Amino acid sequence: MYNEKVMDHFMNPRNVGEIEDAEAIGEVGNPRCGDIMRMYLKIDNNDVITDVKFKTYGCGSAIATSSMATEMIKGKTVKEALKLTNMAVVEALDGLPPAKVHCSVLAERAVKAAIYNYAKARNLMYEELEGFDPNDGHDHHHDHEEE
Amino acid sequence: MYNEKVMDHFMNPRNVGEIEDAEAIGEVGNPRCGDIMRMYLKIDNNDVITDVKFKTYGCGSAIATSSMATEMIKGKTVKEALKLTNMAVVEALDGLPPAKVHCSVLAERAVKAAIYNYAKARNLMYEELEGFDPNDGHDHHHDHEEE
Amino acid sequence: MCTQFYFDYAATTPVKKEVLEEMLPFFNADFGNPSSIYNIGRRGKNAVDIARDRIAKTLNSKSEEIFFTGGGSESDNWAIKGVAFANRDKGNHIITSKIEHHAVLQTCKYLEREGFEVTYLSVDKYGLVSTDDLKNAIRDNTILISIMYANNEIGTIQPIKELAGIAKEKGIIFHTDAVQAYGNEIIDVEDLGIDLLSVSAHKIYGPKGVGALYIRKGTKIHKLIHGGGQEKMRRAGTENTPGIVGFGKAAEMAYENIEEHIERLTGLRDKLIDGIITKIEHTELNGHPTKRLPGNVNISFEFIEGEALLLSLDMEGIAASSGSACTSGSLNPSHVLTATGLTHEKAHGSLRLTLGDFTTEDEIDYVIEKLQPIVNRLRNMSPLYENVRGKDE
Amino acid sequence: MCTQFYFDYAATTPVKKEVLEEMLPFFNADFGNPSSIYNIGRRGKNAVDIARDRIAKTLNSKSEEIFFTGGGSESDNWAIKGVAFANRDKGNHIITSKIEHHAVLQTCKYLEREGFEVTYLSVDKYGLVSTDDLKNAIRDNTILISIMYANNEIGTIQPIKELAGIAKEKGIIFHTDAVQAYGNEIIDVEDLGIDLLSVSAHKIYGPKGVGALYIRKGTKIHKLIHGGGQEKMRRAGTENTPGIVGFGKAAEMAYENIEEHIERLTGLRDKLIDGIITKIEHTELNGHPTKRLPGNVNISFEFIEGEALLLSLDMEGIAASSGSACTSGSLNPSHVLTATGLTHEKAHGSLRLTLGDFTTEDEIDYVIEKLQPIVNRLRNMSPLYENVRGKDE
Ligand SMILES: Cc1ncc(COP(=O)(O)O)c(C=O)c1O
Ligand SMILES: Cc1ncc(COP(=O)(O)O)c(C=O)c1O
To answer: D321 C-alpha vs ligand 1 centroid, how far in Å?
Structure first.
């Protein structure tokens, strides 16, 4: 079902854990839906993300995309991190099964949620966050029955 | 499908042929329905059937029952022959598949039709022939679809 | 006696060695449920996907347009009931032909009882549907046209492209029962422009109990079997993995050298037809002489009845079939033969010999040789024949 | 890694050696069409008849009341749609339960769209339907009650005799989906007084793509698959002879020593349940502790998600299943688990381990041993768990 890279990130996820003194923490998802991701960012004075950690409750692709997303934003500036899209994460994982792509949205949203909280606390504005609401459910992929 | 006795009577039918100077000839069936049987009887002055021949156009059980029926009435009196039922023929053949039992009616009717013609020509009356009409179709077994 | 000379390939075919070999692992080694996520289930899923691709390739369709079923009858029922019920808002009129397989005819009869109207098109003496008849039968409320690709009894091949073209012009969904044509004809759903097509594995050296329905993307159709999410949520039921794998392999093999297959069978077929017609008098070919399945021979023998003929052939180890009422379990002879104008009598005396990949020239010779005395024996017993002989003399 | 520890017998089972052996001749030696009259076809017909007798015997039904189908889903669809459409003149109300298999539920949903009314009975926390609820749900226009014998996810066994008794009293047709119960319970259709019962071969070490529907003589029901005269004119389609033969053999084997089978599996099941519940905290058994299929274990692991659990188990060669949304391809977790009152969260964290004839004690030990570190690993990654750990400390 999943390719090797996804399985590697699922079995050996990078950056699992917490950062006690994180500048930014974001949580998205909902246990009702079966996935929650919490993202911790250490951000230095140059707006560079120097460390990332995550905790995820969710399926294999939720965990793998969490792991991949943390790797992708580590060392990037906040602005660069905000450009991360779920499709970029999926691509970096060499793809996900079509029915599972929606799980990757969680990682993108967790990064945004963390930076949203960071920006709010510091009164910063990022145009990439325009319209972003950390409390929106993530886009669920609806399989509705055709009849 | 058919048992050995039926197959024997089908492959080696007894009494196939015609009797040029037969006292009684009867024909029943209809080519539309896929079966016709013609029965020839030699009947002596004591009303005893001394010889029988038949010709049949029809399926395996029609041919086998024709053959068996001729054997069963040979040497019998006309009155005895009229008592022949299709079920007795079927029994003598050790049975027919349920869907094929209706074919055995042809033989019974052919015997009756021959004696009917014989009686008519001689102005004889047999109570066993009461209500018998040689031109009736034989009882077809209807497989109707349940829905 | 054992069947040694099999002349009933149109009824069913043996599973080829190569096909069975591909199936075997899926009975107990790779038996996992294809819908599950663990390894042993994924292997089943991959195999089903490959089978789907293989079948799609033989029909020039997309893989996503192939849906596996439990056989040709299910495919026909699904196509016809599914379209009928899904398009009731547009109309309730269906057009089919008088010579369809029972899987189509009985489904149409059921739909008539459920309030649909069905036109059964007549055929000519060869069993051909006329394009004009189809045009004339179309009404404003026609929602489906279902015409079989090739007939199972007399082998007649319909002008499917023309018929489908007429349907397309009017925006009417077109289904074809290709159970007999599949593996014996080159079929291109794109070129033909058809919307639905039924096939069955056991007619092409695959296993019994597996079929497929091609459904052109966008065709409005209800499900026949509701339930789990298999077959992209359109046909429920745990996938018959070994069966599907076998079907895929059989389809691939059937189309590997289809031209050669057609040429070889056509040669054998014509040899058998000529042999019988020239050697045995009062015989007649049923169906079309050339627009005919490569393996189909159907001949009426006057004055004798088909079941008696079959039994006699069986005693010689020859397996065949007949349109006689006595073999169908019903009162009337083949609806196909009578639709071509044959008298009941001639229909009762019909014999179908169908050829396949294991048929040899020697077998053809054997059948011709055995047929003559059998026919003579039965005719000599027949009260119908003696009249003719009288006349002939 | 290859699946070496199969714990998904409820999804499907491998075909047993003895079963496959009986099937093999019918693929290519005795491949003839059972509906034909020649020798090779008759051998197929005899084999089908024997299979029918074997299955009838396991259910204490008459052979003529057993009809072969293409699987459990087809049987369910046939039973429910067939009865609904055939009895529309009497009423349009159907009663079923909330925890049925999709083959029943989706069929009922379809019928709702077609103008029928359906009551979905609730279940208690163990998954049991209440006889009072059933009594209260019956209306004057109720034509069918369909309650599953045993549930595929949580293994709960319903009081079928009582439920069927209520139906009988009111003259309502009673169907039960016994796909999971068959081969794991002693089933006597006469004693239970049921009218229709669905079974499927691949759940009892028979082949996929074969099932049967028991139809009590006199039950008014339409066909689902119209066409040829097979199955006494009630289910069209060339008989899947090898599949049917395999089903017959599997059924016979399943009931040869059913008591022993039940006892053995029940022992293993309870060992596995105890092992998990006592070794791993924050776990909970789903379903009924004793009114439960002998091979069914279903446990919720809090704070983790089922698909992640399955993937991790797969890496250890263990095949299992879950009621998590992520494995069903839908948005919501198992409708069965939520119907028993489980929160979505606990349903997402459910694991179903189902045992069968090849399960050993060692395998049970292996699973318990492997589960613990897997659950720990996932919980340590889970933001839900850390809160609890905090509280626990
Ligand atoms: C309770 C129940 N009903 C019906 C089915 C459907 O059976 P099949 O997969 O043979 O169509 C299953 C299994 O999938 C089942 O567990
Ligand atoms: C033309 C045609 N349609 C449909 C069918 C039904 O296929 P199956 O027997 O696989 O259900 C057959 C064969 O029996 C056939 O010849």
So the answer is: 15
Left, alpha or beta for C218 (phi > 0: left; psi -120 to 50: alpha)? left
In chain C, residues with a C-beta closer than 8 Å to the C-beta of A145 are 233
d(CA A80, CA A91): 17
pTM for the structure as a whole? 0.95
Chains touching chain D through at least 3 C-beta pairs below 8 angstroms are A, B, C
A77: CATH: 3.90.1010.10
What's the CA-to-centroid distance between D73 and ligand 1, angstroms?
Answer: 6
| pLDDT single digits (tens) C34-67 | 888 888 888 999 999 999 999 999 999 999 999 9
Considering the domain boundaries, does residue A139 fall inside one? no
| The pLDDT value given to residue B138 | 46
User: Listing from the earlier edge strand, what are the strands of the sheet with C211-215?
Assistant: C66-69, C211-215, C196-200, C173-177, C142-146, C93-97, C117-121
Question: Would you state the pLDDT for residue D390?
Answer: 57
Average pLDDT for C225-233: 93
- Over residues C137-172, the pLDDT tens digits come to 999 999 999 999 999 999 999 999 999 999 999 999
Residue C174 has pLDDT above 50, yes or no: yes
Atom 7, ligand 2: residue with shortest CA distance: C72
What's the CA-to-centroid distance between C87 and ligand 1, angstroms? 29
Cα separation, C11 vs D33, in Å, equals 6
| Mean pLDDT value of segment C323-352 | 89
In a domain, B136, yes or no: no
Longest CA span, chain A: 57
Give the end-to-end CA distance of chain A in Å, rounded to a whole number.
28
| All domains in chain C, ordered by first residue | 17-254 (3.40.640.10), 258-392 (3.90.1150.10)
Residue in D37, D86, D233 nearest the CB of B145? D233
- Report if residue B21 sits inside a domain: yes
| pLDDT bracket for residue C83 (50, 70, 90) | very high
**C211 CB near ligand 2 (under 6 Å):** yes
Give C73→chain D minimum CA distance, Å: 5
Instruction: For C70, name the nearest residue in chain D, comparing CA atoms only.
Output: D70
Number of domain units in chain A: 1
Q: Which of D16, D31, D72 sits opposite C12 (nearest CB)?
A: D31
Whether B57 and C106 lie within 8 Å, measured CB to CB = no
CA nearest ligand 2 atom 9, residue = D238
Ligand 1 pocket (Cβ < 6 Å) reads C 237-238; D 71-73, 76, 101, 103, 148, 152, 177, 179-180, 200, 202, 211
- Kindly state whether residue B138 falls inside one of the protein's structural domains: no
Domain that holds residue A114: 4-129
- Give D155 or B147, the one with higher predicted confidence: D155
C72 lines ligand 2 (CB under 6 A): yes
Q: State the residue for tokens 């047709």.
A: D173
Interface mutation vs chain D, best among C8, C40, C78, most D CBs within 10 Å: C40
**Count of Cβ atoms closer than 10 Å to residue A25 Cβ:** 17
- 3-class state of residue D354 by DSSP: strand
Residue-level pLDDT at D145: 98
Strands across the sheet with D296-301, in order?
D283-285, D296-301, D350-354
